[in-house]
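Hello,

Following up on my earlier ticket. Below are the two sequence lines again, exactly as submitted.
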Amino acid sequence: MKKDSTIKNLMYALKQVWLADKLLLIFTLFKNSVEQIFYVFFFVYLTKYIFNCIEQNIPYTQLFRFLVIACSLHIVVHFICGWYEAYRKVKTPAVYRQIFHRVMDLSDDLELSDYESPEFYDKYARALDHCVDDAIDIAIKTGVYIGNVVSTVMSLIIVLSVDPAFLFFMIVLIFFSFYFGKKNAKAHFDREKDITRNKRIADYVKRVYYEKKYAAEVRLFDINSLMLKRQEAAVSEMEKVSLKYRMKSAFYSFLMNGSYSILAGVVAFFYVVLKVRYGHVSDMSSYIAMITAMAFCTDQLKASVENRIFISSESRKFKNLQDFLEQESKEDAALEPVHEISSIELKDVTFTYPGASTPTIRNVSFQWKKGEKLAIVGYNGAGKTTLIKLLMGLYPVTEGAILVNGTDIGRIDPNAYRKCFGTVFQDLQVFAMPLSENVLMRRQENEADYETVRNALTNAQFDTNHPGLTHGLDTMISREFDEEGFVPSGGQAQKIAIARVFAQNPDMVILDEPSSALDPLAEYNMYNNMMKLSTGKGVIFISHRLSSARMADQIYLMKDGQIVEAGSHEELMAQKGFYQEMFLLQAENYQDSIPEEMLKGAAAYYG
Amino acid sequence: MDKSDNTVSVKRMIQNTVFMVRYAMRYDKALIIKIMLLFVCSETGWALNSTFILRAIVNGLTGREALSKIVIILLISLVLVTCLEWIDRLIEEWSKAKLIHLNGIIQRDLIENNSKMDLLCYDDPDYYDTYVIVANNADSMIEMTVMIVSRILAGIAGLGVAAVLIFDINPVLAAFPVAGFIINLLTRFKIERLEYQWDIANKKALRKADYSKRVFYQPEFAKECKLTDVKLPLRKQFDEALKEASDAGRKYAPALTWVSLINWIGVFTVFSFFAVPAYLGYLALVLRSIALGEVASANNASNYVRRNLNRINFCLVDFQQIGQYAEKFRNMLDYRPAIENADGLTPSGDAQPLVLEHMSFQYPHAKKCTLNDISMTIHPGEKIAIVGENGAGKTTFVKLLMRLYDITSGSIRYGEHDIREYATTEYRKKISAVFQDYNIYAGSIAENVLMRKATPDDTDRVTRALKKADFGKKLNSLPDGIETQLTREFDENGTNLSGGESQKIAISRIFASDAQSTIFILDEPSSALDPVSEYKLNKNLIENAENDTIIFISHRLSTTRMADKIYLFEQGCIKETGTHEELMELNGRYREMFDRQAQNYIV
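Thanks for your patience. The regenerated structure is below:
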């Protein structure tokens, strides 16, 4: 069963190269195998031929002619190899394209929860990171392996044609190599498995010291005491585990390699000596040639075992890749496309994160109609961000239902649905692309697009005349690829993300703490612009600044995953509940004079 | 920089490599010598076995030696081979395991060294590549150096053995592998140079492709990918980068192929496969000067030499890489930080005033000053607020106060002395800070609060600090309390905190800081906090730091109101200064900001 899956994984890896470029795979296999096979000719056949010539006193010209032909052939092989090396450099990107276009197509179907599951990184992300090089490596090694096997067989035939008794040595060796090779591979696999955790710790510690984001804290705190001890412990554990398995490996491969050297070397030589002395052989030169032939044959056998281990352990990675790339695309036929959202209704929605024991959202119900401005406020960890993720269909609800235009969200085409939203997340991302593309989220096509970008940035309070923008709207964001790239500060990144919404001009706008890093003027102007431009559209925003919540038609206050208060600002203030408390706390310092009793009351309440 | 990489002379490369080996020896001399000895023993042994011993056997075959002698030789060979096989296994397995430990120590030393590099090294891509990245690759490069040097030494020892035999048979035979080796050296350097150029062009393109493709499967980008069309430009960027990579291949491959062909045909076809048998055949069949046994021995020996040279060849490729790396490594070791590790005075225990005079600061390579002519005095116990627009230089300002960078002109004095006169670590003990971009580390909550190893005595302090940062409620809900492991980095059951909760942990670092600290710096500490948490934080800060200096940056002007003094920054300069009332009176920028923010809070 295990063998089947190795072959299946190997085939899958080779298939990726094949689909990208058929010639690339053919030549990779051909070049690497033919090279090995050619060695049989030179080291075994030619040696034997020359020795025979000398023993039988064949004219030199014949030997010379033979050598010239053989070497010309070799030069032809070199030309093929040379051409192949060039071809590989040009065509390897095609393998990238093949695999990652599939990944890109697939990513539409992946759920957000897929990305967030802890296995995702371990299982897929790592497989995807190196798969192209791995696939090429496997193809090369497969070629070499084929060459090893063929040349082992070929040299064996030559050896056996001289004296069939050599078969005995080889059979014992083949048996040894499989038996100990397998044991060795297992020790190798176990070792890798057992040191993974400690290796991760050591790598993490290293990362803390060389990644920029940690640099300032590393200098201010005594972090060395925290990290170095941990690294030391991880390393010495790694050494201990490693040594244990490696000595085991050393023992097995000593038995394997030792048997090669002793059987094919010493014992076989002894046999040859005895045979020549007492066996009345007619062609002594062949026997002399066999001494090196045996060494060659065992080297090839050894290499084939090593390559086999390599191929089977490397192609194991392709199991994960295959799982990822070959997952079923979801059926779109039954889904209803949406072009416009007139209402979204949450009915008694409860949501528990996979693996969590308590629900994050409990029995939430509310309705949102087009044109309504909604604010969600509440405490840290109350579930506000989760709620909007549910609303956008990024997670399936655990209980209850979400209705879009009266239809259950599960029956709506998610991609079309999400296109209706313009969103700014708390943990927004800017991309290593030109500024204009970061705002448009597509390539700009004409002058009008630049105009859109400029207006959107201005509305989001981004200073388009900033001296860091050396190429205006075409300035590359981040220094990832461009030394002159612009690295936005937290506030500037937030403004870019807000500008996306202005440029997109969607039906529904969702803002998750869009102004946390903005200065007061930028915040004020941004909200004003947003409200002005979204007349007739839906807006939902989450904010800890209750002054902005006040602009909403309806405010929902969340606490421990539930909506505990709902209403307009005036209604909620009149209720004298949590909202009023929060608002007054925040407002007190903005009043011309602070009412003493209010402060005291708040202090007594929160202690 | 690329150019200088290429022009490190051979002599310098050898010196560099010796330097690297010596560096490794400083840590574990015995291990390095053992590894080298193992390599040399192994190769010498194998050389003996495949030349002299093989010759004796061949001679035995052709009837020149007595059988008893051959049996003795075979027995010697048996013992030798057994030992060699075990030595080889030690090289392969034992030495790799032992090197893990050596690597660990070297890495520990170098990351500690990293932590003493000035922060500027991280900001400037040039410095970052020359210092930080070099230090972090050092462990694997040192291991590689030890291995490669040992292999080359072993190869030379083996060649020596084979050379004796070849000279014994026919010195002319030695000319072929040597000629092959020379052609090889000449072409190899050209090949390496071309490969290097191609590699740089290729890597540059692939870096772009890698970035674009990773966005599609990295969790942090997932939301944007699902909700916007960002995939389209990224896909285009990806395709373009791949085309660039292909073009790089097209550009360098032809030249590379031709030089490689010269190399292969010269080294392998002509000088090994053709010249040796043709010459031996000539000697045996035309001149009749040697017999079959000698032909076989010479053939074996020259095969051995070719194999060995081939191996040394591969080592030379790595050797070149090491030589170039070592150049950077030596530069890195020569680096002397200007700020970190600086010796000097120890500030006295009492809080003292911070005085800034005409201070300016410019990032290296920047065209403009980030901060310009800042003067202010901060008295002990004063509460200072810094406000201003995004990008006004506020964060840079507090980093200068902490001496994470040195100012370009002017002065900052703490008490009697310029802060540059103090030992940096001693000076920083006076300061406790929360950054805007704080980090949570893989470790327990207690460790994340203390930022050092926690002892049982710390429990109280940590719990109190967390409560002051309003983390108390969450703490009660965690079954492991302050021992809860944060992040899933090491522990699958580790806890991931929300944005607001993480910020509270970062804030509690201030409350847990040692009694020595007298200056507290908070850079937008409450941006992710809900109003109640923010209120509690402000209240606790004021109560706990009555005698301490607080400097904070905030966009929430309700918070800055309680400051003794407010500085409004605009484009790197102080635009307005005063108390809240004074600034309101002034009717300037601050007033405008405050009114805008207050407008919707009027009850």
